[in-house]
Amino acid sequence: MPTHSAVQSVIDRIEERSRETRADYLDKIEAMRRRGKRDGHLSCGNLAHAYAAASAGDKLRLRTAGKSLGIVTSYNDMLSAHAPYEDVPKLLRDAARKVGAVAQVAGGTPAMCDGVTQGQDGMELSLFSRDVIAMATAIALTHDTFDAALCLGVCDKIVPGLFIGAASFGHLPILFVPAGPMTSGLPNKEKARIRGLYAEGKIGRAELLEGEMASYHSQGTCTFYGTANSNQMMMEVMGFHLPGAAFVNPNTPLREALTRAAATHVLGMEDFGMAEMTSAATFTNAIVGLHATGGSTNHTLHIIAMARAAGYLVTWEDFSDLSDVTPLLARVYPNGAADVNHFHAAGGMAFVISELRKEGLLSDDCMTAMGKGLAEYGKEPFLKDGELVWRDGPDRSLNGDILRPITNPFQHQGGLKLLTGNLGKSVIKSSAVAPEHRIVEAPAIVFHDQDEFLARFKAGDLDRDFVAVVRFQGPAANGMPELHKLSPQLGLLQDRGHKVALVTDGRMSGASGKTPAAIHVTPEALHEGPIARIQDGDIIRLDAEAGTLEAKVDDLMSRPPVAGGTNSHDGVGRELFGGMRAAVSRADEGACTLF
Fold first, then answer.
1. Binding site annotation covers 222?
2. Whole-model pTM?
3. In order of start, what are the domains of the chain with their CATH numbers?
4. Residue 227, CA atoms < 13 Å, CB-side half-sphere
5. Does residue 551 sit in helix, strand or coil?
6. Residue 486 gets which letter from DSSP?
7. Residue 44 annotated as lining a ligand binding site
8. CA atoms within 13 A on the CB side of 138
9. What pLDDT, in 10s, does the model give residues 384-436?
């Protein structure tokens, strides 16, 4: 199917605006490629250090033209999504040896969990951890002894960070190895109900903790469709996974087979590297996949930063125009009741990719791990007599409440929406909000942090229609933390019949809830954006249908901006990140410190 005209238009303009930056990137990669194999530019002393810890057999392979596979891992055994990676290097080493190659862990990256730091001071380091991960990836691969690489990562900032770092080594074939979601636990509706009861004071912490631990209960990613699982969708639709790898549970025979196959496959990718696997079409495919599945708002930051690492300039307007033509095909919590295991069982990524390709919404003008185009990503992996095989995915959804065909979508536009108006630019996860709540016009109540909001809620001061304006939460102010601490209370007020919304220069992410939230407001308050000029009582209109965010104030920009904010940068390591807060770009430029 030819690429849809609207999608092709976005691809063309990305290529045009990126002509110089992409050429610079390719020049840099070509210079690295011309250096040749490791024994062509590394001294004997360099190589001896690289081989010193290897077994005798691996040393022989490395000395006699065996290929070298570098592994960058985000393993830690504290976090459920990354704990499955503990034994993965052993599987990869064994798989590499069977084809005469050597696999080595080149280095590790940090992997922090937004679930652990949610509502805590440590959340202010979450977004910046992406750029730290990118630098850690570069340090791991800078030993420059590798013929190919594998990146082991799953969660929120880890995959984008690995990608950004790996892009600097675009002469190498590089694939991503997911770990998979945990098995299903407490149903999402029940989890939300328990959180609501706690917010109302009807149950205590013991009951709340019991419910949370029944939800997050084993190894693997959290099963709601937040940033972690949006990452896995994204890497699949960009062609950086083996087909069907995204949502296979950890510690299963199929997951082990896919992991082993990643090593042998990447070692056989001799004709192209990561530079060839990144194109304007690659990133438009990522955005289309995000819209079609109702994915995480965090990717309005990450995809821009990832694209920039490969020399491409992507904008929120590109997201908006692709949203206009991309139907919503999936409803996975918080956009529905199902979790990602249910999504996978209903047809999963193979079905979504096949449906989008029918209308040309995914471009096949791209290189993937499987070669040209995404046709192979409409297949699913299986074990047949112990061997890994692929066969065509389902040609229909197995559950119409979770997955729909492109001829009968849940909605005709994507799950994310760009909002514009006199408050600047922002984004909203419209797919999580019921149609009757997508337009809110109400007086503003201004807060400078979450705790101020929660104190006023507890005092009973917010039982009314209002728009919560939570500012000085942008990347330069305090690292742009997620503000999910507010979700249960806003949801309760909405359930009581009030018109409520959130407007913030902070984040909400893939777990954005049922209350309309205009997030990533740019310019942020610290940069004296319009949000810094809002006063209590100003009428704010958020219209997710029309794509507008307006303060109904005639003299808004003639007002002096409120100065400062109350953010402290001391404690839990925040004092170490002053340079990143000073250097970070705007949210609509990826909130990145590296470019």
1. yes
2. 0.95
3. 5-34+66-183+218-392 (no CATH), 184-217 (no CATH), 417-589 (3.50.30.80)
4. 25
5. strand
6. G
7. no
8. 13
9. 999 999 999 999 999 999 999 999 999 999 988 899 999 999 999 888 899 99
